[in-house]
Specification:
By secondary structure, this protein is α/β, with parallel strands linked by helices. The chain has 15 helices and eight strands. β1 (49-55), α2 (62-70) and β2 (79-86) form a beta-alpha-beta unit. The N and C termini lie far apart (65 Å).
């Protein structure tokens, strides 16, 4: 009986160790490949773009965003800023128009959300026939001047879907925004650099991305979930294409610094992601086998790798278990837990290096334990956002 009990314990310990170790190994490989990507030669500067700004009650900041986008280093006759005032109850449309943007007003009481706003704008842009590609920039963001150049240089060489680095505009505001900058340094820059080196898809990150109308004709935009960006990136992979990464350009968005707004935003992101795992993971795994697609396989792995906080909790549990059951598993479990911890520290450290938040951000990492407790409490919160709700920003 004792021997059977030991076998059961050993099996349980091994099962708990596998998810954490595989996730850490995956992140370590990407960390090792996160050197800077090579920029392509300059474009001919002949492509025409519609820069789409989906906006829901963004009167407080839309003028600044439009002004920033109008300063993009691109021939003025070859791009325009198009604001989609989606179900707005404020003066977003009026302010955007007065700031020099082309404004599309959309009202639909039943089909609500960023995905529907984007689909409407893409259809409008295609019917207008002026542009060859559309670019999506959120209404609370500022873009680097070379954004359109970075897209055009790659489109002229055959790319049809692209993503600039998506970073944090207000990283200095609080410890939350600095931790977010570190997280996006890892998730958006580190992982995307590695995938670009491997010829994989960096996916769509929701802000600062571009698709050609040629692709949209083959693959109409139909991503309406709470994680419409990830969903469309998966659709692109399933269609046999990949999203290329533009390392030299960026779009920085304003992130929330207050706990209440952060809770709502986090619930929306992670709730939508778990739903997407259920709906898209089987399709990606089947496509990776049937089409022998490394892009689809990596997109599946990206879905399976849960948010970093959950991986950290898993590794912490593994460390505790390695001590409690050392008489069953022996020293191999302790060494595995240490290896996982080193891989995680390497990944987070590289994310910090790429984030640009400096020593203050490094000190903010000491707050991670309290952040993990907050995440655990968030799991049991009954409030689950189900539609596009404008995140309240402290400065608005």
């Amino acid at each position: 009986m004792h021997e059977l009990y030991s076998v059961v314990e050993y099996a349980v310990v091994s099962i708990l160790a596998v998810p954490a170790s595989l996730a850490c190994l995956y992140l370590l490989v990407l960390t090792c490949l996160s050197v800077r990507n090579t920029e392509p030669p300059s474009s001919s500067r002949r492509l025409t773009f519609d820069v789409i700004v989906p906006a829901h009650d963004e009167a407080a900041g839309i003028a600044g965003t439009v002004s920033n986008l109008q300063q993009l280093d691109w021939p003025t006759e070859r791009f325009r800023v198009v604001v989609v005032a989606d179900n707005c109850t404020d003066t977003t449309a009026e302010i955007a128009r007065a700031s020099g943007a082309t404004v599309i007003t959309r009202r639909d009481a039943t089909r609500r959300g960023k995905g529907y706003a984007l689909a409407h704008a893409f259809d409008w842009s295609r019917a207008d026939g002026r542009s060859e590609a559309v670019v999506v920039v959120d209404a609370d963001s500022h873009a680097s001047a070379n954004l359109l150049e970075s897209f055009a240089a790659r489109i002229e060489r055959g790319a049809c879907a692209l993503q600039a680095h998506y970073g944090v505009l207000n990283a200095a505001d609080s410890w939350r925004t600095r931790l977010m900058a570190i997280a996006l340094g890892a998730i958006h820059k580190l992982r995307s650099r590695a995938r670009e080196h491997l010829g994989l898809s960096c996916g769509i990150r929701g802000n600062g991305w571009c698709v050609t109308h040629a692709l949209l004709r083959r693959l109409p935009y139909q991503a309406y979930s709470l994680t419409e960006d990830v969903e469309f990136g998966i659709d692109i992979g399933l269609a046999g294409e990949r999203v290329g990464y533009c390392d030299e350009s960026f779009v920085n968005g304003e992130m929330v610094s207050g706990a209440d707004a952060a809770r709502s935003q986090r619930q929306r992101w992670e709730g939508g992601r778990f739903k997407l795992i259920k709906s898209s993971l089987p399709k990606l795994l089947i496509a990776s086998l049937k089409l022998r697609s490394a892009v689809c396989l990596d997109l599946a792995l990206d879905l399976l790798v849960l948010p970093l906080s959950y991986i950290v909790l898993n590794v912490a549990a593994l460390i505790v278990i390695s001590v409690m059951f050392s008489f069953v598993a022996g020293s191999w479990l302790r060494w595995l837990a240490v290896a996982d911890l080193v891989a995680l520290m390497s990944y987070v450290g590289r994310g910090w290096m790429l984030s640009g938040v400096g020593m203050r951000g490094l000190l903010d990492l000491l707050r991670v334990p309290s952040f993990l407790v907050w995440k655990l409490l968030l799991l049991f919160s009954p409030r689950k956002p189900t539609e596009w709700i404008r995140t309240r920003r402290e400065k608005s």
